[in-house]
User: What shape does this take?
Amino acid sequence: MTGNRTTVARDWTRDLRDALAYPLTSNRRLAVAGLVTGATYVFTVLSAFPQFSMQVLARSPTDIGYAVTALTRETYLSTGWLGVGLVTAYALLTGIAVTNAAALVRRARRTSASTLAGVVPGVLAAGCASCGAGVLGALGFVGAMAALPFDGNLLRLGGILLLAFFLGRAGDPRTCGIDNRP
Assistant: This one.
């Protein structure tokens, strides 16, 4: 029984590595992952402080750079480098997950509708995990982040672990996980 767990853990680790490396296999995939990562970071930081974001962007949408910079600094001041690192890791994993999900959707479209039905919930789960703590701010629960232990860093870490778990389960979207399993 222990040997089987070791094999499963080794397979999951290999699949996670393959999933993380997939966007690096072409310039287009890397660009998509980069764009999604940047957009996720901007959305997460802006949604963590929605009142400030709305005021700055209502005055002039061109001030988005100022808003992101100021709110990144505020994230650092409230949660330290750990918080900024977690937000960045969140955004990076979301960029990878969306790139991989797009490949799975393209592949599912070629195979069958039932495969597509299995991919769509994963895309939605990645989308929910990407906004994480920012959803609380967007829904008006800005003070909820301050009430969470470690200023919401545990919530962010939980989202990162959830994304990593699902990326490890999916593996490289170019391969079929069923064909590779004994």
